[in-house]
Write a structure and sequence with these properties.
single chain; 350 residues; alpha/beta; D-Maltodextrin-Binding Protein, domain 2; 2 domains; 6-stranded mixed beta sheet; 5-stranded mixed beta sheet; 12 helices; 11 strands; 17% strand; globular
Length: 350
């Protein structure tokens, strides 16, 4: 006689109850359902910037990397979130709404020391550094008729025209304002500087309603190329002299000389002498060491995924991983770098 599935299972239960399967049946190894152990992932949010920015492109790349390259048994999930940039990212972290973020070094310095936009509100060690990323290169774009010197001092020639410094509360607005304030006396009368998002500023510039805009980011910046391509003879990316770099850096030392190679942008036949500050990956100190270590190891083992997301990630490497970090390392990151034989400076040691 051939038993159906229901009869077989029902009969098996009866036989087990009668003790005919002995210890094996009592252990439940044949008849009971096999429990599936699927760990519940620890879900983390990575704050980036607006959807057209370098932070967002690399952030979504890192999120993808974590999903593709970290085994499910590690129970780690990382999702990228669009924001207005470094300023909002820090506020989200302090509010517990993001556990990771990409930041400009200037904002990391302000948060650690309780200066700048965080005056009187130092974060102490609540936020830690994970690794340096790429240089955030300054791109001050200005109508060529207002840029006789070709350097950032030409911003003072606006003469009532408007220049976008980035959206309110954004990292772009914060760093651009800092640079202009440091240089002093270069800003036209009140009302010259306006706070527009990247999309708003790009549209206004292309329509001739704006004289210029600031847009720092990892080279090449797609939006910058789109703007320059529209009017390569009418717009100019301003340069920074060595003197201007020294003034901006006084007391901080965050910015370095960055030369944008010819051909980076449409119609660009010469080097652009710009400057750049570091960007870095930050994390809430409460994230477990093992999770930070696992994410960092996966990142450096699979950099091709980040480089596919944006060419700026080509600058990410172990040799420069601690360069320009404005915050103490997270213990999980310190473990990773120690295993790689990288000496951790005392100022960064957790």
């Amino acid at each position: 006689m051939v038993l159906g599935r229901r009869a077989l299972l029902g009969g098996g239960a009866a036989l087990a109850g009668a003790g005919l399967f002995g210890p094996l049946a009592r252990a439940g190894s044949l008849l009971d359902p096999v429990p599936l152990s699927t760990p519940v992932p620890r879900r983390y949010t990575l704050a980036t910037d607006d959807t057209g920015g370098t932070f967002y492109a690399v952030g979504t790349g890192l999120s993808t990397l974590v999903k593709m390259r970290i085994p499910s048994e590690a129970a780690i999930d990382l999702s990228a979130r669009s924001t207005s940039g470094s300023g909002e990212n820090l506020h989200l972290m302090l509010a517990g709404q993001a556990q990771f973020s990409i930041l400009q070094a200037l904002y990391g310095h302000w948060a650690r020391t309780g200066t700048g936009t965080f005056k009187g509100r130092p974060t102490g060690r609540r936020i830690r550094a994970v690794t340096a990323l790429w240089p955030d290169v300054e791109h001050f774009i200005l109508n060529r008729t207002l840029a006789p010197s070709g350097t950032v001092e030409d911003v003072r020639n606006l003469k009532g025209a408007q220049f976008s410094i980035g959206s309110a509360g954004s990292g772009v607005a914060g760093s651009t304002t800092y640079i202009l304030d440091r240089l002093g006396g270069m800003v036209a009368p009140k009302g010259t500087l306006v706070e527009l998002s990247t999309i708003e500023a790009t549209s206004a510039l292309l329509m001739g309603r704006l004289a210029g805009m600031s847009l720092p980011g990892g080279v090449p910046i797609t939006t910058v190329n789109a703007v320059i391509s529209h009017d390569p003879q009418g717009l100019r990316i301003l340069e920074f002299t060595d003197r201007q770099l020294r003034i901006i850096n006084d007391g901080l030392g965050l910015w370095r000389r960055y030369v944008v190679p010819p051909g980076t942008y449409t119609g660009q036949e010469w080097e652009i002498q710009s400057i750049a500050q570091p960007t870095f990956l930050a994390v809430d100190e409460r994230v477990p060491d093992k999770d930070v270590y696992t994410i960092l190891r996966a990142m450096f083992d699979n950099l091709e995924i980040l480089r596919f997301a944006h060419r700026a990630a080509e600058a990410i490497n172990l040799d420069d991983a601690l360069t320009g970090l404005p915050m103490v390392l997270h213990p999980g990151a310190a473990r990773f770098f120690a295993e790689k034989g990288i000496e951790i400076p005392a100022a960064l040691a957790p």
